[in-house]
Amino acid sequence: MGSASETVGSVPEHTDVIVVGARCAGSATAIELARAGRRVVVLDAAAFPSDTLSTHLLWPAGVVELRDLGALERVLGSGAPRLTTALAAGAGFEIRSRFPDVTGIDYALCVRRPALDAALVATARAAGAEVRERCRVHELIRHDGRIAGVRYRDHDRVERELRAPLVIGADGRASTVARLVAAGDPHRSEPSGRDCYFAYWTDPHEDRRQIAAQWREGPLLGTAFPCDDGLMLCLVQPPAGYAGRGPGAAEAAYRAAVAGIPALHNRLRGCERVGRVRSATGLISWFRRSSGPGWALPGDSGHFKDPVTAQGIRDALRYGRLLGAAAAPALDDPAALDRALRSWAWRRERECAAMYRWTNRLARGEAMGPLEIELYRAAARDPRLAAATLEVMSRTRAPSRILDPARLVVLTARAFRNSRGRRGDLVSQVADEVRGIAEGWLQRPAHLSTAQQSPNR
Question: How much is the pTM?
Fold first, then answer.
């Protein structure tokens, strides 16, 4: 006969929604569902606060999502400074601009994941969601062709069964839920041309702690984002394969890339590194099939972009929140729920497609081309154009409205005059931009028709 704990663990529980993963996408989804009066159980293998491999800049639109979820005051309690100014420099040109206002928010934030995720978990609990920590899902329950629950091991390693009409896999790029519903292979993907290395530094330069900065030097890209606890996130993205192999490769690649960007190296004077270099290599941007009978994949589990444009957390928060809003009124009707999930997945792909393409271009790991140099040159002289580029990052302006046909013609003519030795590069870059504009006008996201298929039995 089994122990008492094993007997209790064998009795199935029931709830309205199970959310696997309590970080950005999972907490956002749970908050919205709980606010709608639904019973939500969130399962996460971590104990909070805890860290995870992630960069974590939030443009103003991302801060808006924190506000709308009711988490902003808790996040601001971390002490992260309000980043009111953006700086971007490359090819001898420097663009500096205040962040534009997005529905009352005119600053960015960079908050390390232990503080950010703990604030989101606390907000989810305050909204009425039950968050169970140190619980690892290992199996999905199926009934009549639908996902109907999970089996997991709790913090005492007791196996438990939890049933619900909806299981949400907010468990990251290596999603267990995505794998178990056979949605692990993306239907649209592109490998990044950059690797990512980052570390934290003390930051005694109070006069610079309101500036989010990025520098380009040849194919190298580096950033300095002041964050909580008086620290600064310093990230570099050299071309893929920049590092060697073996112990110490990430450290060597990081040091070499920082040294190869003089302005970034200068920003770090007087700063002291705290902790080790972290790395993310072999990155692939994707869209996965993100809904099916009784399941959905918000956050990185369903859609991931290279960190070069710092969009992941904003999208996890926004589309987690929208998933909760879409699912809450439909949970009692399986057909209505499936329609709501398909509509949500379609909306995310449609709304994220332009930024996905823009991100993939910036992630190519190449030096700035003639057309991009002319864009920097123009934005350095024109404050309105500089502000417009920040609106793209905050998702209030489409990328196609920066290099629209009229501006493309003007910048191409200027680049032709100023790049006599690189006109072949110019022709290639202009052709690429024209393709991008055409995609923005003509291409529609591929409909996830396979989302209607039943999960494997």
Answer: 0.90
